[in-house]
UniProtKB/TrEMBL annotation:
Enzyme Commission code: 3.4.21.83
Family: Belongs to the peptidase S9A family.
Protein name according to UniProt: Oligopeptidase B
Top-rank EC class of the record's enzyme: hydrolase
GO molecular function: serine-type endopeptidase activity
Entry superkingdom: Bacteria
Record organism: Micromonospora acroterricola
Pfam families: Peptidase_S9, Peptidase_S9_N
Length: 698
C-alpha cells in the first residue's frame, strides 16, 4: 500500500449480554445506533480511509469500469413478451441508469416478437414507466411492483428511494397517462389484481419488517378505507400475494422456512373470504398453481425432493399424485399453461425443464449442449399458448432468451445478450474460455462440486490467481452465470470458481439440510475443502486465492477467515451476516424470528446458542494473521444491518491489529448495493480492482 495513514479509531463502550449463563462483552454495540451522529461520522471516516488506502487503484478502477461499459450495448431492448393485445418490454438508453418500461400494440397477424435495430424504440411504442424520470433527484431508486391489470388499463407500481425495501404504491391510468389519487405508503413486494381490475391486493409489514398482512384496495378509494384480507400472527411466517397465470385466482402464500399454507380468493369475487387449500402442518411445504378445474400442488409431504400432485379447484381436498417423488431429482416449481405443464427441476447439480402435455402425450426434458449451464423459465404471462420462453446461460455463454415450442420441440433463439469487443477490439469468442466441473473432498468424505471458468491455456501449475465464490444457505443454488465484468478478470489470467457448499440447494433438499441449523459448519468446512482442493489440483496457490461472498455468503467469508486464515490472500465480504448470534438473539430486529428455522433459536435452546457462538465471525475473532479483508455494506440495508460488518472490522483491528482491513459503506443504498447500472458497475470495478491488487495483478 502507498500510505501509512491510521484507520479510524472505533471507541470501545463495553455492553454486556447474558444468555444461558454466558456473559458476552460487546464493545462496539454503539455502532448499531443508526441515527447517532457519531455512528455516521465513524462510517464516513471509514469510507475516507478506504478511499485513501485504495487510491493507488483509481486508474485500474476506471479501466475496469470502462471495459464493462465498452463490452455492454448500453442502448438495448429486451425481447418483447406478449400479454393480451400488447407486447411488453424494457429499454435501456446509453448514459441513463435505469430501464424504460414500454409496450406496443400487437398488429394484425403478428406472431413473432418485434425487434428494433440497436435497441431503438419500437414504432408505435407506449412508455409505461421511465425509471430515469422517477429517479430524478434521488441517489437510490428501486421498483417493487410493476403490475398491469388484466384489462391492460391500469399499472400498479411502487417505488423505494432509500434502499430499505419499503415502497410507496401508486396506480397509473394507462389510457390517459395520469396518476390516480390512490397512494399507499410502506408497502412490500407483491400485488394482485381482481379479474375486473376494480380491486388491487398488496402486502405490508409489521414492526419487525416481516410481511404479515394482505390488504384489499378498491381503485379510486382512499388507502384509509383499505381492508385487511389476511393477517399472519405467527412470527415465523411471512405472506405474499399474486394472481395466477390463468387470472382465475388470487393466491395468498403463507410460508415459514419449513412450513407452508396457501389461501385462494376467486379473482371474479375479490371481496370473498380466502379459502385454505390445505391447512399448515409443521414441516410440510407446498406451492399452488391453478390449471383448469384443478390446483397443482408441488409438495414435500413424504417426498424429500418434492412431488407433484393435484386437487379439485372447486372443492380442494385429497392430493392426487401426478409426478411421484424421485430421490435426487429436486422439483422446484411447476408452471401451468392451457395444454402443457412445465416443471423446473434440478438433478446432479444442474437445472432443467420438463414438459408434460395435458391429456396424453410423451413428457420430455429439454436438452442443452453444455456440461455446465443454468436454465429457467422467463416471463410467460400468457396462459393459452403452445410455447414457453426460457432463459439460458453458462459461465461462457451470455444470457440467452429462447422460445420453445412444446409441441414440435423446436427452440428458437430470440436474443443473446450482446458482448461487444473489449479493449483489444476483438469480438467476444466463448471458445477462448473453458469451463470445468471439479470436486473437492470434505472432511467427512462428502464430495463437493466446484464450477470453474478460465481462459483456454491457463496453467495448472499453481501459478494462476483465483477468485473463489460461495454462498451456501437457504437452499439457494449458485448456478453458473455469465458476467461481462468477470471477463476483465479472466483476461488478466484469473480463474473464477464457485464452491457449491452444503446449505445451498445444488444437490437437492438433503444438500440443504446438511448445511443448516446444527449442521451449519459443513458450509464453512466445505468451502475450505474447495479452497484446499484448488491448490492441490494446481488451479492456484493459497497466496494467489481470494474468497468472495455476500449476505449469508458474507457469514461464510467471516467464518472461513477464522477457520483457515492461511488459505486465502484476501477476502471480500459484501453485506456480510457476520454478527449472526447478536442478530438472531434479538426478535425485534427485521426477519429474526423467521430465521430461527434456518439457524436455530439461541434464545430458547442452549445447544443452538453454544453452536452459533462457536462459529459466528464477530464472536470468534482471534489474535492470528488474517488475510486482507474488504467488507462492503449499505447504510439502509434491512436484511443485514450495516453495523454487523462495521463492528466486525473494528474488532479485527483491535484483536488482530497486524491485518489490512477495510470497510466501505454505501450511505444511500440497501441490501443490493447501488441501484443504477453505472453505479453498480463502478462498485464491481472497485471490488475487482481490490481483488486484482491482492492477487498481484494491479
Amino acid at each position: 500500500m502507498t500510505t501509512e495513514t491510521a484507520p479510524p479509531a472505533a471507541k470501545r463502550v463495553p455492553a454486556e449480554r447474558t444468555h444461558h449463563g454466558d456473559t458476552v462483552i460487546d464493545e462496539y454495540s454503539w455502532l448499531a445506533v443508526k441515527d447517532d451522529p457519531e455512528t455516521i461520522a465513524y462510517l464516513t471516516a471509514e469510507n475516507a480511509y478506504t478511499e485513501e488506502r485504495t487510491a493507488h487503484l483509481a486508474a485500474l478502477r476506471t479501466e475496469l469500469f470502462e471495459e464493462t461499459r465498452q463490452r455492454t450495448r448500453e442502448t438495448d431492448l429486451s425481447v418483447p413478451a406478449r400479454k393480451g393485445g400488447h407486447w411488453y418490454y424494457t429499454r435501456t438508453v446509453e448514459g441513463q441508469q435505469y430501464g424504460v418500461h414500454c409496450r406496443r400494440a400487437v398488429r394484425d397477424a403478428e406472431t413473432e416478437p418485434p425487434v428494433s435495430a440497436d435497441g431503438a424504440p419500437l414504432d408505435g411504442e407506449e412508455v409505461l414507466l421511465d425509471g430515469n424520470l422517477l429517479a430524478e433527484g434521488h441517489d437510490f431508486f428501486s421498483l417493487g411492483a410493476f403490475d398491469v391489470s388484466p384489462d391492460g388499463r391500469w399499472l400498479a407500481y411502487s417505488t423505494d428511494f432509500s434502499g430499505d425495501e419499503r415502497f410507496t404504491l401508486r396506480v397509473k391510468d394507462l389510457t390517459t397517462g395520469e396518476l390516480l389519487p390512490d397512494e399507499v405508503p410502506d408497502t412490500f413486494y407483491g400485488t394482485a389484481w381482481s379479474a375486473d381490475a376494480s380491486v388491487l391486493f398488496y402486502v405490508t409489514v409489521d414492526d419487525a419488517w416481516r410481511p404479515n398482512r394482505v390488504w384489499r384496495h378498491t381503485i379510486g378509494s382512499a388507502a384509509a378505507d383499505d381492508v385487511v384480507v389476511h393477517q399472519e400472527d405467527d412470527e415465523r411466517f411471512w405472506v405474499g400475494v399474486e394472481l395466477t397465470r390463468s387470472e382465475k385466482f388470487v393466491l395468498i402464500d403463507v410460508h415459514s422456512k419449513v412450513t407452508s399454507e396457501v389461501l385462494v380468493i376467486p379473482a371474479n369475487n375479490p371481496t370473498g373470504a380466502p379459502a385454505v387449500i390445505a391447512p399448515r402442518r409443521q414441516g410440510v411445504e407446498y406451492t399452488v398453481e391453478h390449471h383448469g378445474h384443478r390446483f397443482l400442488i408441488l409438495h414435500n409431504d413424504g417426498a424429500e425432493d418434492f412431488a407433484l400432485a393435484f386437487t379439485s379447484a372447486d372443492t380442494p381436498g385429497d392430493w392426487v399424485p401426478l409426478i411421484e417423488h424421485s430421490p435426487g431429482t429436486r422439483l422446484e416449481a411447476v408452471d401451468a399453461f392451457a395444454n402443457h405443464l412445465v416443471v423446473s427441476l434440478r438433478t446432479e447439480g444442474l437445472t432443467g425443464l420438463r414438459v408434460l402435455p395435458v391429456g396424453g402425450g410423451d413428457e420430455h426434458d429439454i436438452d442443452f449442449p453444455e456440461p455446465l449451464y443454468s436454465v429457467g423459465l422467463d416471463a410467460n404471462p400468457e396462459y393459452r399458448t403452445g410455447q414457453v420462453r426460457l432463459r439460458y446461460s453458462s459461465l461462457v455463454t451470455p444470457d440467452s432468451v429462447y422460445d420453445y415450442d412444446m409441441v414440435t420441440r423446436q427452440m428458437v433463439l430470440r436474443r443473446q445478450k450482446p458482448v461487444l469487443p473489449g479493449p483489444d477490439g476483438r469480438p467476444y469468442d466463448p471458445a477462448e474460455y473453458e469451463q470445468h466441473r471439479d470436486w473437492a473432498l470434505a472432511d467427512d468424505g462428502t464430495r463437493v462440486p466446484i464450477s470453474l471458468v478460465c481462459r483456454v491455456g491457463t496453467p495448472r501449475d499453481g501459478s494462476a490467481p483465483c477468485e473463489l465464490y460461495g454462498y451456501g444457505s437457504y437452499e439457494a443454488s449458485m448456478d453458473p452465470w455469465f458476467s461481462v465484468a468477470r471477463l476483465s478478470l479472466l483476461d488478466r489470467g484469473v480463474v473464477f470458481a464457485v464452491a457449491h457448499t452444503r446449505g445451498g440447494g445444488e444437490l437437492g433438499r438433503r444438500w440443504y439440510d446438511q448445511g443448516k441449523l446444527l449442521a451449519k459448519k459443513n458450509t464453512f468446512t466445505d468451502f475450505v475443502a474447495c479452497a484446499r482442493h484448488l491448490v492441490k489440483a494446481g488451479w492456484t496457490a493459497s497466496d494467489r486465492l481470494v474468497a468472495r461472498g455476500a449476505s449469508a455468503g458474507g457469514l461464510l467469508m467471516g467464518a472461513v477467515a477464522n477457520l483457515a486464515p492461511d488459505a486465502f490472500a484476501g477476502i471480500v465480504a459484501q453485506v456480510p451476516f457476520v454478527d449472526a448470534l447478536t442478530s438472531i438473539l434479538d426478535p425485534s430486529l427485521p426477519l429474526t424470528v423467521t430465521e430461527w428455522e434456518e439457524w436455530g433459536n439461541p434464545l430458547e435452546d442452549p445447544e443452538v446458542y453454544a453452536y452459533m457462538k462457536s462459529y459466528t465471525p464477530y464472536e470468534n475473532v482471534a489474535p492470528v494473521d488474517y488475510p486482507a479483508i474488504l467488507a462492503v455494506t449499505s447504510l439502509n440495508d434491512t436484511r443485514v444491518l450495516y453495523s454487523e460488518p462495521a463492528k466486525w472490522i473494528a474488532r479485527l483491528r483491535a484483536v488482530a491489529p497486524g491485518g489490512d482491513y477495510l470497510l466501505k459503506t454505501e450511505m444511500g443504498a440497501g441490501h443490493g448495493g447501488p441501484s443504477g447500472r453505472y453505479d453498480a458497475w463502478r462498485e464491481e470495478a472497485f471490488i475487482n480492482a481490490w481483488i486484482l491488487d491482492r492477487l498481484g495483478h494491479a
